[in-house]
Amino acid sequence: MAGRSKIVFDAVRYDYTPPGGAPVPALDGVSLAVAEDEFVAVVGPSGCGKSTLLHLVAGFLPLADGRILLDGRPVGPPGPDRGVVFQHFALFPWKTVRQNILYGLERKRGLDADTRRALARRYIEMVRLEGFEDLYPAQLSGGMKQRVAIARTLATQPDVLLMDEPFGALDAQTRGLMQEELLAIWSRRRKTVLFVTHDVHEAVLLADRIAVMTARPGRIKALVEVGLPRPRDRAVIRSAAFAERCEDVWALVREEARAAEAGVGPMGATEAGGAR
Ligand SMILES: Nc1ncnc2c1ncn2[C@@H]1O[C@H](COP(=O)(O)OP(=O)(O)OP(=O)(O)O)[C@@H](O)[C@H]1O
After folding, report:
1. Probe ligand 1: pick from 17, 42, 50, 214, max atoms within 8 Å of CB?
2. Per the database record, which ranges form the ABC transporter domain (predicted)?
């Protein structure tokens, strides 16, 4: 890993408390340093705490223990320094494409109306939605809606981009196009990205490094350096190196998925007991 750390997870623990139940450890002992402008994908078996990890960085959830540092300081409540894109587009149905994007910018202080409009225009172009500015979300395809959501987040120029299965709801073809677009956008305007996905191919295609999480309670099982050349496009998926890297990551995820199925976390901790 090159460069200074942008995000540091230091022995992070988070307990999930179901309504009326006792706290269950969801994350325990997560330590990871993400470099400035690095693209890190997070993969792992279902329920291992990938989304929780992102929600903690976004400031949506409180830590039970440990620290998360952003530029060396503990993360605070949600703020415009961290842009969030989730699987469900969360657009305002009563606002047009342009109004949705302007909404994100209005929440950012210190931008006058002309600057906001110019930024909205620039990011509408970036996600190739010129000509659709005045349409409402219901008039757009799934892929277009997701592009609006991404443009809305990118337009605020956050230092850190937190993406939780952002393409998970899209059909395979649209997903491929969105991956291409994200690669192109990221290579033009690098930023620190944490990207949660179930899709190992997607992780290898996009990321610099892949953090593979253990079965619940999640922590980092392994960090895989992707090592494919940049700038990257989808042609890379035909290379032997791509296939090899996918296999490496798959082997790690498979091990943990089996542990999760058996109800036994790594190191033999049982799920039910939450014994760690
Ligand atoms: N709303 C919730 N209801 C039930 N359990 C929850 C909830 N939120 C968190 N948890 C607990 O926290 C753990 C981590 O959940 P999280 O959603 O972060 O996992 P994930 O790895 O993102 O899962 P998936 O891959 O299935 O989306 C779960 O195993 C569960 O025990």
Report:
1. 50
2. 12-240
What number is the ipTM of this complex? 0.93
C-alpha distances out from residue 233 to 88, 207, 255, Å? 25, 12, 29
Compute, in angstroms, the gap from residue 47 CA to the centroid of ligand 1.
5
Instruction: Round to whole Å and give the CA distance between 41 and 196.
Output: 6
What's the pTM? Answer: 0.89
CB 207 within 8 A of CB 231: no
Give the mean model confidence (pLDDT) for residues 84-111.
Answer: 88
User: Phi and psi at residue 226, in whole multiples of 5°?
Assistant: -75, -45
Checking if the pLDDT of 272 tops 50, the result is no
Amino acid at 165: E
Cα(2) to centroid(ligand 1), Å: 31
**How many other CB atoms are found less than 10 A from the CB of residue 123?**
24
**Backbone φ, ψ for residue 202 (5° rounding):** -60, -45
Ligand 1 neighbours, Cβ below 6 Å, are: 16, 18, 24, 26, 44, 46-52, 216
DSSP designation for 156: T
